[in-house]
Write a structure and sequence with these properties.
The chain is flat. It is mostly beta strands. The protein is 2% helix and 55% strand. The relative contact order is 0.12. A hairpin with a 5-residue loop joins strand 15 and strand 16. The strands form three sheets. Strands 1-6-2-3-4-5 form a six-stranded antiparallel β-sheet, with no helix packed on it. The protein contains one helix and 16 strands.
């Protein structure tokens, strides 16, 4: 579906230069008596690389909609991540390159939205936050209850999250999947 560039919004998927991109940021520019422009930051869904692109306000952009299915992450084997459709129990797999940074936030039995384009799985849409167990970090500091000093902690998926000093091994923490930042400790 073709839409005017002025209708682009963050989160949309567009086809540009024969590749699929997620719109990360949109800024409308109207420089005086010149024609308006739309400055965008795009992330390539295949490679994960980001690029900036400027569209003229009269340009048409092809918007792509994905079919989404709720699937349960089963396991990882040799770089292949296996998912099962929770409705019809069909299984599909994606490789680590297709998933990009999302592998840092999925654990076995977690439910995610798998995005399909023309019947082919393209990637995973994560919830805004996930809960992960801390597997390795420095010991908690005595009296470090309210402090802004952060220390690195490794979670069960292998991701490193900077956490406050009071977080210990075995704690479950809530992490923002957009930027990988610690949000809170889960009781």
């Amino acid at each position: 579906m073709l839409i005017p560039a002025t209708q682009l919004r963050a989160g949309m998927i567009v086809k540009h230069q024969n590749d699929l991109f997620r719109v990360m940021n949109v800024v409308h520019i109207t420089p005086g008596n010149w024609r308006g422009m739309v400055q965008t930051k795009l992330r390539n869904l295949r490679s994960g690389t980001q690029m900036e692109n400027r569209f003229r306000s009269e340009d048409k952009v092809e918007r792509v909609t994905f079919e989404q299915h709720e699937m349960e992450f089963l396991y990882e084997s040799d770089g292949q991540y296996h998912f099962m459709n929770t409705e019809n129990y069909e299984q599909t797999s994606l490789n680590a390159d297709d998933l990009g940074d999302t592998v840092k936030y999925i654990t076995p039995n977690s439910r995610v939205q798998v995005e399909f384009y023309e019947g082919k799985p393209m990637g995973v849409s994560l919830p805004n936050t996930v809960e992960l167990k801390v597997t390795q970090t420095d010991p908690a500091l005595k009296g470090a209850t309210v402090t802004n000093v952060l220390k690195p902690a490794t979670v069960e998926t292998g991701a490193i999250v900077h956490v406050p000093g009071f977080v210990a091994i075995g704690d479950t923490i809530r992490v923002d999947t957009e930027n990988g930042e610690y949000l809170s400790r889960v009781k």
